[in-house]
Amino acid sequence: MRMWSSKHILSSIGYVQGAHGEETLVCQFTHMTNSQGCLWFGGNPAAFTVPLVLIQFVVISAVTSLIWFLIKPYKQGLISAQLIGGIIMGRSFLGRIDAYRDTLFSPGGTMILETYADLGLMLYLFILGVQIDVSLVKRLEKTAVVIGAACFLVPLTVGLATIFIISGLIELEPSVKQSLTLVACLNAVSSFPVITSLLADLNILNSEVGRVATLASLVSDICNYILSVVLGSMAVYLISESLAVLWSIVWAAIFLFIIVFGFRPIIILVAERVPEGQQMKEFQFVVIIVIVLICGMGAEVIGQPAGLGTFILGVVIPDGPSLGSSLVNKLDTITTKLLLPAKFVISGVSIDLFTISGVSGPIFVLVIFICYTAKFTGILIPSLYYNFPKRDAVTLALIMCCKGVVEAALYITMLEEGIIGSEAYAILLISMLMVTGLARPLIWHLYDPSARYLGQHNNSVLLNHPNDDLRMLVCIHNADNVPAIINLLDASNPTRNRPITIFVLNLIELKGRAASVLESNRKGKLTSSRSWSKQAANAFNLFAQRNHESVVVRHFTSIAPYASMHDDICTLAVDQNANIMLIPFHKQWTIDNRVGTNSPSIRMVNQNVITKSPCSVGILVDRGAVAMGGQPRLFQISLLFLGGLDDCEALAFCTRFIENPQISLMFVWIRPCDHGISDEETETSTMETEIELVNQFRAKTIGNERITYKEEWVKDAIGTTRVIRSINQYGCDLCIVGRYHDPDSPILLGLTEWSECPELGLIGDMLATSDFQFSVLVVRQQPPVTGFSDSHHLRPIASRYSSSTSYSNHYQDHHSYSFQEPVCHSLRT
């Protein structure tokens, strides 16, 4: 009966006898879809399907976003915010208000929302499948296999044994006993997508522990899938005829065959038509989405969840650029941020904490606690056996105990299918929130990937013996970085007596895949299929061929999130014992000296590398002037020396240019007029060491017409700026300077007020402005170990760098290299 009053009947709710028990029956008017302005006639817009769904999405998005904003500083995940939001809006809290419950989450009002939520879960599982790299199975090592198997089998065995003991002591209802068995199985799961998402959130995906956790979770997932297939077949056999089991296996095999040999080639054909670095066209995207929906429907037809079909499709299609990243970019926001939260809020709404009572509740809690303890112990013991540090072993155990989207989806599916009861479901979700919520901040505080290399190694150009090979790590983000770096390496004049070993690291952002990669590209086989990676490899190989027996090149690839990419860079620097690494500046200039590209992500990588590098760092600001090949004139290089560790490192690097006949080097020493301003022993010792290093450099360049030495005495920052700007007058292609200079020095006071890029230092930031047209190399030496001053760090370097000859008397015999009287440059009166 339809009534137009403000209190007309919208729907009727009752209970009927279903196939497996009493079920809820909802009767609604079929025409109650669009409100069509009923508010003006005294109607209720929430009584109609479309306005109600929109209101639900708005409320869910607002509540979950607010909760995530509050708990995110405590390293909590989005899934936790969504579940907490669902519990708050559910029957345990706000849902106890009749008016709120009947308006927003009535049984009839959630039907459409659940349909959207299931569609979102199906697409999300497809995204997770796309990001899985099947080739990871080939990289499994014994350590990961043992830890992954123990992660699944130990809690499962201990949990089932506990249930067997409890069943012998207490008589349990059949439904409770069945739920307990499934609880033990579910707690043994450590899902690969969940673990990799957790590692990415905590910026440890490409760390040493992160890589082990990634592979171990893959092994755990494989064990879980094998057990699920076996138990599922046995369950079908027990409740039906044996022929039904055979038919279920046959149809599952046919379905898998269609996905692998039917849909996969079509998607690969679409992927081949997507240009590199570009997004797929609308028609291509629609084709893939239609195939995804067909797979979901096919899974439902053969008796499996729709998400399983889409997940399998995602696994078999190529991950990474450009197909995987395009699909993730197009689907991730609408799926993860809008549709998927509805699924977990609905699951939270279904929780009623007040239903946990009686004897069964504590038994569920006991079994879950024992399963988590067994999982933690089962991972900790093998980790310690394989010589993991204690903190790393504890961190790995905590990581593998965390749960997320996949486990929550399994709980919801089992509740909807009536496999587990509401009490078991509520305890599973609450325990998941508590364990994961406690583990995430503990992991953050316990594990620091940089502890492996930060402060444990001491390497630089100064520490390298002049006749030893210079080991350089070169970082490449794109093809535009290659020419300037190769020409800088060429300027370094590699010879048989002074060879260079170059480690080329291709840095690629992790897109469209879950697991990070750091591996050597042996025999020219590149992990990345990007054309610029192959072009860069060819360019460096040609450089090595031109400098046969004086240059050795090895290629590596890192595919990682920008937030943790510095870990791969620093790890490789430690493993290869690099003296210095060259990283490109985050800005690139056009021909007319305007900024062409500006990448904040690359800047973040550079800042992290400078802070945590285990060796010296050179940031190359390329303006296209670093080019030597075929030049009719000398390549002009200027070295600005103000003193300090970084300038001494820059000076050591410049000594490699001395013997290059194509190089003209101008050494500019900017000194304060009152150079004896401090009587402190450490500052005096540091100054003496700097003078000793400069003297050694000057002695090596006596009589070399291509080397120019200048001393500029200044009073203040204005005089320093004037000297730096004068470099343009002499002509310069590349200027080299140290990164750190004392900001309290009288000759630098005030320069920090205009600092735009602090990672370049005071002088480097000035040289990177549009006032200068030459390229800049900013050198940062590895910070000394805490507790040692600059003088203690420089003194052994100077003694190692120098030969047995005393240069102080040698200088006095050459008047052209004697110290000049100070001529102070200042614009002040």
Task: Name the descriptors.
disordered C terminus, alpha/beta, transmembrane helix, 829 residues, Na+/solute_symporter_sf, Cation/H+ exchanger domain-containing protein, Rossmann fold
Give your account of this protein's structure.
- The protein is of the alpha/beta class.
- The protein folds into two domains: 86-447, Na+/H+ antiporter like fold (Up-down Bundle); 470-825, Rossmann fold.
- Helices cover 52% and strands 12% of the residues.
- The strands form three sheets. A twelve-stranded mixed β-sheet has the order 5-6-4-3-7-10-15-14-11-12-13-16, with helices on both faces. The chain has a two-stranded antiparallel ribbon with strand order 1-2.
- Helix 1 packs across helix 12 (323-349), helix 5 packs antiparallel against helix 13 (360-385) and helix 15 (405-416) packs antiparallel against helix 16.
- The radius of gyration is 33 Å and the shape is elongated.
- The N and C termini lie far apart (97 Å).
- Mean pLDDT is 81; it is low at 1-9, 675-682 and 785-829.
- Its main location: membrane.
- Residues 637-781 form the Cation/H(+) antiporter C-terminal domain.
- InterPro entries: Cation/H_exchanger_TM, CHX17_2nd, CHX17_C, CPA2_transporter, Na+/solute_symporter_sf.
- Residues 62-439 form the Cation/H+ exchanger transmembrane domain.
